[in-house]
Amino acid sequence: MAFLNLRYDEHNKYHRLARTAVISVISLCLFVCVWWLVATMGLFETIPLPQDTFHALKSLIQEGDPVSKLTLWSEIGSSLTTFFKGAALTLVIAIPLGLLLGYVKPLRELATPVIEVLRPIAPVAWAPIFIATKALGYDWGPALVVFMGMLFPILTSTMFGVQRIDPGWIDASKTLGASSGMIFTKVVLPASVPYILNGLKTALGIGWMCIVAAEIFATSLGGIGFFVYEMAMNFYWDYAFAGIIVIAVLGLLTTGVAEQVSKYVSRRMGLEA
């Protein structure tokens, strides 16, 4: 009769998964209840009822939107293409640059003032400039906005990770005759990985916020962000909210994948029990 034992064991991964699932369901139900209450009371005329929003989402999947007749999948495909272009560019630039600035103090001191000046600027502020710059190509405008949004969380986390390395590890490596290249690849890089992954998880959420704003400016590229804007401008509030739900799901899936990758890498490197 052991299966009747309902006591929660925090060391049992199945118990933890079940607890997380139950809490998530309760949380979502409460959210929908509050949403329904606010919509029913008419406090905001632009907020549709949950059932109307889900009906619009179903219609969007099956028939396309009521204005351009584009399907949900084409809008998602456009947004994902832009998002991954910006994310890939960020990883190629932010991680190597963060490792270099974290490892080489004179370069870090030189770059820090520039980073501190640029970091507070809202990424969407760059949207009109990037999209209007012909040399960059119209398709790259929104991707560069995503890049600006994701750059600093990954860059600063990587720099911080390098700076947190115990100097004793580096001194011991030098004593054992390790070259600078070996110290960098065998000590600095592995020790920085958890910080890089944390920065990546933060950056992914910011990236999705940026793409929605950027697509409003790049109207010919479409995407979920432009879809929400277009529906709102034509007073299809239920379709607009359906687009917002899609954005939330895409963001959750992206960060969820990043979380699993982070756990896998940590286990492989012996950084997680």
Please describe what this structure looks like.
The relative contact order is 0.12. With 273 residues, the protein is mainly alpha-helical. The protein has 10 helices and no strands. It has 2 domains: 1-47; 49-268, MetI-like fold. The longest helix has 38 residues, at 180-217. Helix 2 crosses helix 10, helix 3 (72-103) packs parallel to helix 6 and helix 8 (180-217) packs antiparallel against helix 10. Helices cover 76% and strands 0% of the residues.
Question: Short summary of the structure?
Answer:
76% of the residues lie in helices and 0% in strands. The protein is mostly helical.
Count of discrete structural domains: 2
**Which spans of ≥5 residues are poorly predicted at pLDDT below 50?**
1-5
The helicity comes to over 70%
Radius of gyration: 23 Å
CATH homologous group name of the largest domain: MetI-like
* Level-2 CATH architecture of the largest domain: Orthogonal Bundle
The biggest sheet, with number of strands, parallel, antiparallel or mixed sense and barrel status, is: none
The percentage of residues in β strands lies in under 5%
What brief labels describe this structure?
2 domains, 273 residues, 76% helix, MetI-like fold
